Inverse folding.
């Protein structure tokens, strides 16, 4: 396999031009589009909540949302490493850091009892 092909995986930053800590807040209309098409039964865990962009839209749509992030961006419970979590929840809806997208997806399948939606 050529090096270029090996580097073409989700979250790789070969150019070094990504935002610090892969912080890319999800636009409101993207979260709303998800909620218009997908319904969630039970609570939702937004485990990479950042500044609350997705959480706020989900709360506005009547969902009970627990929000956390490893990094403090002024919203949710901070200092929480989702990849070390054992918190069982009904649903996980998040836009994970791109460089950890695979790990977040696998962890979401482990912890969500109903649905896991990683928007990346």
């Amino acid at each position: 396999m050529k090096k270029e092909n090996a580097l073409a995986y989700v979250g790789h930053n070969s150019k070094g031009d990504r935002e610090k800590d892969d912080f890319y807040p999800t636009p409101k209309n993207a979260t709303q589009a998800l909620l218009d098409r997908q319904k969630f039964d039970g609570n939702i865990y937004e485990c990479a909540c950042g500044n609350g962009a997705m959480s706020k839209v989900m709360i506005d749509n009547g969902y009970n949302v627990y929000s956390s992030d490893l990094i403090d961006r002024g919203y949710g419970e901070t200092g929480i490493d989702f990849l070390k979590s054992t918190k069982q929840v009904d649903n996980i809806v998040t836009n994970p850091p791109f460089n950890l997208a695979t790990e977040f997806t696998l962890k979401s399948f482990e912890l969500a009892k109903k649905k896991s939606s990683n928007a990346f």
